[in-house]
Structures are given as structure tokens and as C-alpha cells.
Amino acid sequence: MAVRLSARVSAYLWPVGAAVLALSALWVAVGLGMHSGAVAFDAGWIEIIQGPSCSMRDILLHGRLPRAVAALLVGAALSLSGLLLQGVTRNPLADPFLLGISGGAGLAVVALQSLWPRAVDLGPWLIPAVAFGGALLAMLAVLHLAQAGGGRVSLLGLILSGVVINAFCAALITFLMARADPFRLRVTSTWLYGGLGFVAWSHLLGVALVLLGCWLFLRAQAHRLNTFGLGMEGAASVGVDARMLLRRSAYVASLLAALAVSVAGLLGYVGLIVPHVVRLAVGRDFRVTLPLAPFVGGLLLLVADVGARMAFAPEELPVGVITAVIGCPVLLALLSAQLRGRR
Amino acid sequence: MSSPQGKTCLALEGLCWGYAPKLRLGPLSLKLRAGEHVAVLGPNGAGKTTLLRTLVGDLEPLAGKVEISGEALETLSPPQRARRVALLAQNPQLDLELTVRELVALGRTPHLGLWGREGRSDLEAVDRALTRCDLHALALRPLGALSGGERQRARLAMTLAQGAQLLLLDEPTTHLDLRRRHELFSLLSELGQQGLTLVSVLHEPAEAFREATRVLLLGADGGHEVAKDDPERRDLLAAAYAVPVERITL
């Protein structure tokens, strides 16, 4: 009897997907209703339901709602980037942050803001474009360093190269910020460490469109991406131009990381954790993980953002602190599992 | 997919292969009809695996032509090539977390459309390949939990699921015990009768002369065919492998 490849997966996808959507809606509601770091329905949702005042409408439309949408989009972009990087490098530790790709994007944006502050006036597309350039350069540098001895990219080579590039970008960012004026420094550092509160609708619309384009491209390549499980030669033997697909995947992963950086700075670990959670839930098939990962990533960042606003209310933590607090133990667990597997 | 018995499936004309400029092998000219099984023999480093990689389009020929069912290999797109030629590679870097079924289903990749959705014919091809390689009981097991022989059978099933008319098998008996070797050669014989053309790299001359319909010997002079009833075949093999003739058992 014929059994579909993803029979186990199909049984889980819809319930898991529905649960993720429901939880996301709930957290969007929580985020919209939050008032001074607390879920205050008297000041938040009751006013919304009864008909918000002009000032409340402004807060909702230009503050809380774009912030929630930004969390969803950034989480989606980072988790897609991580899923893609882990799949094509066959490396469970690959993530745009750990590999220095986000660092490259962040450095490019900080450099632009420091050296040419008025460049932002040229249009909302400039920051994502510059971030993409930085991300791509960092990605190419990591791959080049990882292959320095010739041959295939190893797990250790990739991580060490990522650490080197990350450290280099962090040092340059620190240097540029040390020379920035105090007001600009405050704004840039809040954005750099995961600030979701600075984004305009026009920027989000552009990010959403590019994200959708990347997702459609990846979904059309999903069955080919699966063949990386056969190795590069194995993928070629089933009719996949593996080298071309690897190159394109690197560009798309960099673009996705750059989109995220352009909105919310350097957010670590989302791209690392989410692909693992998704694969645990529904298996490894890209045709299934690609539709689910963006929603799980969005949900994680929504939760982290609400946590960042609530933890020390009325002060706000950069959301990157919360994702790092969640991500570090997960990274340690993954590393230890990898090392146990090698023995 | 099977080709009509007797039609030329693979034609090599003055084919030179290798890694220029360091290694240049050939020239080799050969025509294989559908249903034929050619065993490729030769010492280590004679270019057997490199020849198969050239025939599957992974390496460019250094000279000469490769035609599959009358079409030049270089004019075919990667998916078109993969629908015509399938390769069972020697040491693939497989993801050991893949289950047997997932691995076999990857063989259908060149047949899938834009969104990669499997149709009925794909599911049937996967099931047929699992049945042929006696793998249904292991279908949901990850590759990492299999023995070397079971993994080899799973890879063969993937190659069969690809549905190509020309199968290139690089040391297909690796890790197989006597019973599984017997089953493999019975399966290959059955596939030959159904019109599939087989090129297999083997290390045992006795197996090659017993199981294949033709034998190709690669060596310092490039490659040439050895007739199965050639009275001097042992001497030819001994010379190619540089061993005393009494070491050759047929």
C-alpha cells in the first residue's frame, strides 16, 4: 500500500500549526493590551473594545501593533534563515547570529549610521539593502574561512569561522559606537540589541514583501533542499544542481538575516532554537518545516518581546537579552549532544 | 522507466575521462543495448568510479561523447539526466537521521513538480523499490540504526525508485553477506530482463564473469572488453591487476 512520505508529519502539521496560530493571536492580544509593562485590561483592551481615544488609537496603530507585527516578521525571518542554514550545511548549530551573518549586517548598518547619518533620508529600503550587503560579505567570509584548508565545510570550521567573524564585527561596532555622539549612541544601542519599537509601517511592508518572496522561493525548492541529506554528490545524482542551490541558499539566508537586523538589530538564538523545535514536532522534510517555522519563530519573538517589556516594568529590556537567556542553555544542550554523538 | 530490449541505451565514442591535467584515462568506445549488464573490473586507481561519475554527468568528459538513448549527455538538464541515469555511489555522506522511506523517496526528486508534491506514481515507485529490496520492515527506521548491509540495500532502493533506464552501481556488493549478494544479483538479472541497462563496478572477477552479460577491464591502456569465453581472460586479468595468474579464480 502506498504511504505518503510525510504521513507522520501530516498528522501533526495541522494541529501544531493551529496551536501556534492560536497562541500567536493570544500573545498579540496580550502585547496590544499591555500598559506600562503590565497586562492592564482596564487601560488597554477595555478602552480598545469601547472605542479608543485618539491618543490610544495612535499608540495602538503606531506603537503596539507595528511592534507585534515586527516581532512576527523578525521571528519568521530569523527562523527561516536558521532552518535553511542548518539544512544546507547539515550543521545543527548553524544560525545567522552564531555564524556572524547578523553581525555583518549590524556592522554595515552601524557603519552607515555613523559615517553618513543622513543616508536614512534616502528611503526605507536603504537600511535593509546595506544590512544585506554586510550579511552577504560576512557569510562569504565565514564560508571562505571554513574551507581554508580545502575540502568540505566542517562543523568545527564553520563555528570557529563564525566566532571569528562575529568577534571582528562586534569589535568594529564597539569602535564605531564609542565614537558616536551620546544621543545617537543610545538610539543605536537600543536598536542593536533587539529593539522592536522603532519601526515604521512602510519599513514593515517592505520587509513582509521580501520575506514572502524568500518564502515562496524556498517553498519551491523544498524538495531539492531535502536532497542535501544525501550530501552534495548525492543531491547531484538525483538531478539537483547542488552547488547552485547552495549558493542561492546562502544569498537567501543572508537576505533573511539582513531583514531581521534592519528591523530589530542583533537578535541571537531565534534562528538556532526554532528549527530544532519545528523538526522535533513535525520531522525534517522542508516541505513541512518551511510553512511552520516562520509562525513558530514569530510566536517565540512575540513571547520574548512581552517578557522584555514585563520583566523590569516600566523599564524595558532589549528583547535580545530574553532570546539569549532562552537560547544559551539550548545551545549548550545542543553542543553537548553533538560532542556525545562524536564519541 | 524501462527501454525496449535491444535498443542502444548507452553509447560511448572515444570517451576520455579523469581529472585534467593530472589524470587522463581512455579512450573508450562502447555500445550497450537495453537489458545488458556490464561489469567493470580493474585495479585500484584505474578510474572505475571516475568513469561512473562521468557517465552520470557529475564530471565533464575530457574528450569524446556520451549518449544515452541517442541523446548527448551534455544536452540534458540535471533533472532530465537523473530521470535517465541513476548512480549508486560508493561512499555517500548520508544524513543518518533520515528514515529508509525518506531516503528512498528522495530518489523521486527528479520527477517532482514545482511544489515537490508526490503523486500516486511516486508513492508506488517508492513502495515497489522497498519491496524489491525487502525493506518494508525497516521503512521507518533511521539509517543510523541500520547495519552496513541494510543501509546498502536502502541506497539501492533509492536508486531503483529514481526510475532510470540506466543504473550505474559502484561496488553494489559492499557490506552484503552471501545471501544478500545472491539476492542482489537475482534482482539485477530481473531488472536486466525488464530492459534496464546496468553498469556495475565489481571487485570479484568470478562474480563479474558469472553475473554480467559483458565484462569491461580498465587498466593502463584505458579500457577494453574481455569476452566471457576468452581463453586468455585469466592472463589478461592477472596482467591488469599485476598479480600471479594463479591468484585469479573464475
Tell me what the structure shows:
- The complex is a heterodimer of chains A (343) and B (250).
- Chain A contains 13 helices and two strands, in the order H-E-E-H-H-H-H-H-H-H-H-H-H-H-H.
- In chain A, helix 4 (101-115) crosses helix 5.
- The model of chain A is unreliable at 1-7 (pLDDT under 50).
- Chain A has one domain (2-342): Orthogonal Bundle (ABC transporter involved in vitamin B12 uptake, BtuC), CATH 1.10.3470.
- With 343 residues, chain A is mostly helical.
- A two-stranded antiparallel sheet of chain A has the order 1-2.
- The mean pLDDT of chain B is 90.
- Chain B has one domain: Rossmann fold (3-Layer(aba) Sandwich), CATH 3.40.50.300.
- In chain B, a hairpin with a 2-residue loop joins strand 4 (63-68) and strand 5.
- In chain B, the strands form two sheets. In chain B, strands 6-7-8-3-9-10 form a six-stranded mixed sheet, sandwiched between helices.
- Chain B has 250 residues and is α/β, with parallel strands linked by helices.
- Classes of the chains: A mainly alpha (343), B alpha/beta (250).
- At the A-B interface, helix 8 and helix 9 of A face helix 2, helix 3 and helix 4 of B.
